[in-house]
Amino acid sequence: MGKALFALSRRLHRYAGLLLLLYLIFVGVTGILLNHPTMISALSVPRWLVPPSYQIEEWNRGSLRSVVFSEREPSVGFVAGTEGIWKTTDGGVTFEPMASGYPRSRALRRTNHIVLLEEEEAPARLLAATRGGLFVASVDDAEWRRIPLAPGDEHVRKILRIGERLVVFTNSNAYEAYGEAGGDLPHFTLVDPDRLHGGEGGTTEGVSLVRLMFALHSGAVWGMPGRLLIDAAGVALIFLSASAIYLWYFPRSRRRSAGAPRKDGIGRRLFPWLFKYHLKIGVWATLFLILFAGTALFMPPSPLVPMTVRKVVPPQYWPGPLPANPWHGNIGNATYDPVRDEILVELRGGTGRSVWRAPADFSTPFARDAARLPIGAMGSNVLEIKADGTLVVGSFSGLYQRSAGGGALIDLSTGEPADPRPFRRGEGGWQTAGYFETPSGERFVVTHDEGLIGIGGAQPNGRFKMPDELKQGYRMPLWSFLFEVHNGRILRDWLSSHYYLISFLGALSLLLITFTGLFDWAYRKLPARPGKGRPEKRKEDPAK
After folding, report:
1. Paired strand residues for 359
2. Are 499 and 489 in contact (CB under 8 A)?
3. What does the alpha-carbon distance between residue 412 and residue 416 come to, in Å, rounded to a whole number?
4. Burial class (CB in 10 A: 0-12, 13-18, 19+), 79
5. In sequence order, which residues have a C-beta less than 8 Å from that of residue 259 and are 6 or more positions away?
6. Which of 63, 396, 418, 429 satisfies CB 3.0 to 4.6 Å to 376 for a cystine?
7. What is the model's pTM?
8. 3-state class of 449 per DSSP?
């Protein structure tokens, strides 16, 4: 029975490994690169290598997220999105890029929000919130300069203009500048954390189980040492996969040349070395291989994600150190309510997305808003409150509007009252990436897939056509491209909705390969029990 089980395990390990050799090497290489986004932030993939569904058309895929028009000259406007900032001087008929001094990195130039500052006795200036920090440019010379916020780069989410004060929210902190809107460079200072979330710490209820899976998968749960440890395990996976090719090929090559004179070549000396360390490294890396595969089973796009998406890990059970700032990496969006003179902040928490309110001067810490907004799992891309108190919120769950005073929530795709439950896509199917209004009051939504769509009968009428220069010059950030390769989503143009099976079946297969390899090693190395007929030390030609 033992020999039969060993023979079966050996065959499963060999042929499953051979079948997945290239896949596992790809996963190992892409995983290591993904673990260090700053290292590859300057690199991008040319348009001809990007599948059609990932290329931009009609301002889709976030290439238009924020639009602002001049109050002095309504025909002058600025468009911001993943491809940087573009300027129009004819009401949106033509556009030209504003790239001088802006981040050259395709990843860091991604722009979330822009604000136009027009003072009576000062040149108009444009502020831009990007992944690479906060930038400002004079509209006249269009030369961008970076505004320092902190020693390191921060992902800037939103810029709020509150009277003579500017408030900037990054993904972790808030900064404010007083009375310098017309100066050269606004000087921002960090808002005291106690003014944001109180001295006792937290506005979060814990960490989602899906987020824990990502943190374990990358090693980020243990900081940089954890990432480097996972990198080493990724190198081990690459070695195991690459060495398996030779371990499979050499015995067959030797059998084919059995009648030829025997030579003591490099191949014959290399085989025992590879066989030895394939076993040793495979055993040493077992726990990490199980960690890779086990966490991948519960990460998007796996079909098992619904089992974990609403589960929360209490802070005391988080396996690594947690940041002292409970907002670290959790800020998704923010807006200013001029009617109530309050700031609203959207936070990622253990049970999804929530909105928190506080006085605009931060005189008291933020408190959770009882109102429920239909914000999807990936957060809001639109969060605005107009001068009359009307709220507009948009995410991949749709685009909605609520009048001042807590009126009914209206789905703007249908004009009907909406279900405010989170994670529910709007009836009209708008996966909202951006929203804007023209000086004449026309309203437009920009969806992730379809691009620009008029609301309430609004029509572009020859305006807001995406520049050919932007389309033809499109390059996908390397990190984004590798992420889609790593999880198999890059093949959805050919596999449709079945693409999720790649990572799911790949994770199951890696578990099978790992456990059968461990069993084979144990069968060879561990002593046999008395009476089972197997010697304590099994000597055999590893090439067989």
Report:
1. 342
2. yes
3. 7
4. buried
5. none
6. 396
7. 0.89
8. coil
Contacts of 222 (CB under 8 A, 6+ apart): 229, 319, 320, 321
Per-residue tokens: 71: 């109050």
What SS3 class is residue 264? coil
CB 304 within 8 A of CB 511: no
Which residue matches tokens 């260090």? Answer: 36
- Cα(240)–Cα(251) distance, rounded to whole angstroms? 17
pLDDT tens, residue by residue, 78-98: 999 999 999 999 999 999 999
In angstroms, the CA 475 to CA 434 distance is 21
Contact between residue 196 and residue 176 where contact means Cβ atoms under 8 Å apart? no
- Whether the CB-CB separation of 431 and 396 falls below 8 Å is answered with yes
Q: What is the rounded distance in angstroms from the CA atom of residue 160 to the CA atom of residue 173?
A: 14
Region for residue 433 given its phi and psi (left: phi exceeds 0; alpha: psi -120 to 50; beta: otherwise): alpha
Q: How many residues does the chain have?
A: 544
d(CA 438, CA 130): 23
Interval 239-280: pLDDT, tens: 999 999 888 876 655 555 555 555 555 656 788 888 899 999
Q: How many CA atoms lie within 13 A of 223 on its CB side?
A: 5
Give Cα 153 distance to the centre of its chain. Answer: 17
Alpha helices (H) along 368-477 = 468-472
C-beta of residue 222 within 8 angstroms of C-beta of residue 320: yes
The whole-angstrom separation of Cα 130 and Cα 408 is 33
Locate 421 and state its tokens. 């439950």
Are the C-beta atoms of residues 105 and 121 closer than 8 Å to each other? no
For the cut 90, the answer to whether the pLDDT of residue 373 exceeds it is no
Give one DSSP letter per residue of 227-250, joined into a string. Answer: HHHHHHHHHHHHHHHHHHHHHHHH
- Nearest Cα neighbor of 131 from 477, 391, 500, 376 is 477
The residue to which tokens 């902040």 are assigned:
345
State the Cα–Cα distance between residues 107 and 90, nearest whole angstrom: 29
Which of helix, strand or coil describes residue 278? helix
